[in-house]
Amino acid sequence: MLTATLRLLLLLFVCPAALCLSQSKAHAADRPPRILASTFPMYQIVRNITQGIDGVEVELMIPAQMGCPHDYALTPQDMTKLARAEVLVINGLGLEEFLGAPVRKANPHLTLIDSSRGIAQILPYTEEKEGHGHASKTHGQPHGVHNDGHDGHHDANPHLFASPRMAALLTANIANALAQVHPAGAAAYTANAQTYGQRLTRLADELAELGKRLHTNRIVTQHGVFDYLARDMGLEVVAVVQAHAGQDPSASEILRLVQTIKAKKAGAIFTEPQYPEAVGRTIAKEAAIATARLDPAATGPEQAPLDYYEQVMRANLNTLEQTLGSH
């Protein structure tokens, strides 16, 4: 997936700035920009950064209920949104594989902000291991890849947004880039980002503190969306239900998953509201462990409140404590 992102950036823009910011010739620096966010998590972050700033327009490209766009294809409506936008904010790390040459054709002057650019300790997104586990544990010191375009043999895990601590870094990156695009609003972008980032960091601290009190730190997840949250909480993801997002395991793979869960003594399987939970429940029953849902906030209502992400993550905190137990 990282290769796809690099190809996208080469096709679209030259990236001289640390945040891969390509300045639009069509946008006047003293005028608030028209911003297009690629995904719901990016949309919510941008809305928090730009709140209260007159004239800034923020639009979401893919539907709010779409989730992670692993298999998404651009629609004519998307191309229309791209054509009228002045700034495109993306997650990066290969999540937006659907972007490419058509974007440049739709809007050659579009300014691109890659929110993940420059963030260190990016985790690998490896899909093959016994029982659909991951190639490295997500607690302690991870064997991550750095977001410098060189990731060895592993693609990068793009799901930074599902960790409040990483979401705070995305917020700072986006605000810094918007301040370059629109210097007249720099102070407001920075102030809003600091306020939102502080709230996210406090939430991350609460989750990390809970991680120390849980009765077990070994879990199974739907796919790799919670790897960063697990790392930040000190949890170990011993296996995933779907090695490939959206693709259910075969009967033989389910058997191996059950064996891995029992061998690793996982405490629970956590499914996601963005995917059917039947397979996860079946595996949990066969392995005789609890199951519950965690929401990565990859989707949400069309007009979500600005604190929607915080509401979802606090609900996740309660679910983790109730399911795994704490002391």
TrEMBL record:
Superkingdom, natural source: Bacteria
SUPFAM superfamilies documented for this protein: Helical backbone' metal receptor
Annotated region described as Disordered, given as residue ranges: 129-156
Molecular functions per Gene Ontology: metal ion binding
Family of the protein in this entry: Belongs to the bacterial solute-binding protein 9 family.
Pfam family membership, one: ZnuA
Gene3D superfamilies, A to Z: Nitrogenase molybdenum iron protein domain
Organism: Desulfobulbus propionicus (strain ATCC 33891 / DSM 2032 / VKM B-1956 / 1pr3)
Residue ranges, compositional bias (Basic and acidic residues): 145-156
InterPro entries noted in UniProt: Bact_metal-bind_prot9, ZnuA-like
Keywords on record: Signal, Transport
GO BP annotations, alphabetical order: metal ion transport
UniProt name for this protein: Periplasmic solute binding protein
Signal peptide positions on this chain: 1-28
